[in-house]
Amino acid sequence: MTPINLNIYLFVLVVVIFIIFGLSASRRQKSVKDYFHDESLPKNVVSLTATNITLGTGLVYLVTGAQHNGLLMLVVPFMMCLGYFLQGEFIEKATSISMRTGKNMLASINEQIERLTYMKSPFAVIISGSLVVIFVLILAFEIFASSKVIVPFLFKTPDVSAEIWLSVIIFVITVVYTLLGGITAVFRVDALQIPLVLIFLPVFLIVTVPDLDSPQILFRKVISTIKFDSSVVAAIAIASINSITTQFYSLLNWGAVSHVELSNQKRLLRWVGAASAIITAIFVIVGLLHSVEPGQQVWQDITVKYSLIASQTGLNAYLFSCILLLGMSSILLTTTDAVVITAIMFWYDNIARGNSKNAKNDPNELRKIRRIGVITFSLCFIILIILNYFQPDPFYLLLSMAGGVVVFAPMIVTAGFLSSKGDSLRIFKPNIIYTYFVIFLFAGGLNILMLAVKSPMVAYIGVSAFLVSIIYSLILIFKAQKWKLGFPLT
User: Fold this and answer.
1) 220 lies in which domain range?
2) In this structure, what CATH number is given to the domain that contains residue 336?
3) DSSP state letter for 31
4) Measuring CA to CA, how many Å separate 438 from each of 428, 445, 468, 474?
5) Cα–Cα distance, 8 to 153 (Å, whole number)
6) How many independent structural domains does the chain possess?
7) Is 406 among the domain residues?
8) Of 97, 209, 276, 414, which has the fewest CB atoms closer than 10 Å, so is most exposed?
9) Is 350 within 8 Å of 104 (Cβ atoms)?
10) Is 361 helix (H, G, I), strand (E, B) or coil?
């Protein structure tokens, strides 16, 4: 008997345990605040860090990026860390206190805009609606890509139908226990998943990187990956920009910040940035040191190697196969459940106009929240089925799906900065907000077109949209400051 004969039973067992832990939290949900918020700094650091470790961006994007771009790809995890540090400085020094103490930052900015402009503002609705859709897309992608990696561990003859069944099962399990158990369910399941992920990472290195016992060989391999041609430098520059800006529009980050006390918000972001950078750097190192034949995808080769281990006999095969399966399953579920709860919170707060920090016992509001979750993730399910039907290249899919969303990073930063400058936020009238939205839609449309033809220009669209958004934001800041000095604000 080989490990693959037992893996399916092991997978079912661990998933059942996750479900039991998740559903056990449903009894603790008495109020909306219970459902959405937990003030524990360690729990939030662990959960947000775990959410940043994904099979899609980790095993597909970072590993493949390292294969294509060489040693410079290590800059990307550092830039992720820098993004978190900059965000921590931003919320502490460049935003008003009221922005950080409301139900969430986007809703607080929206309320201040409405007070200053005396009109209903689409700020929170536009950003939250767009980002929830993007996060639903990313969730569908993560499940789609992860199923491709995990299926060879579970079936001797994996095929597309097996991937579809696995992705559907994972989707239903995650949504059900998160909808019922809320943030408590997410944190309880994290407590089981994180140890499995920490055990997985060293085994991931051992299995995928040859010559680990020969530092000189490894050093020569790393040095040989150094590339400075124009295409590599451009790719790293784009990836670096995306790594920094992602932190400023990420609903996951703003959701975690809204959980903890004012004094812990900067600390939360710094700890998560450092931990996430260290772990994602491991994926880059694997991409640098796992050699493949020209024209092959490194993540696919790693998947094949893992499936070969699962078909062997012997103690090491059983042990490594077990650890890899449990680790990858945990990575997938830590990502999906956090996305589910965060997307529901921002939809409830900013679109349904609820208050996620309402501590009143109200079963009707809890039922409303779960209805929102069912509607939102029915859309995710539809997208997941479409992805499984068309079977696009996961690497190009990830590059293209969120290219336009970077537009919102300068928008949020500008609004947060102006919120601390007296009446300057008054400049964010509806036509200003809709202009950002049009840029986002235009970039998204181009991304879809580029995905269809698998164009290498995909990554440049997001950067171009980001630069346009920055220029537009600087113009708004300049006009707002002129108005403060006595010039008319038009």
Assistant:
1) 3-391
2) 1.20.1730.10
3) B
4) 15, 10, 12, 18
5) 8
6) 1
7) no
8) 97
9) yes
10) strand
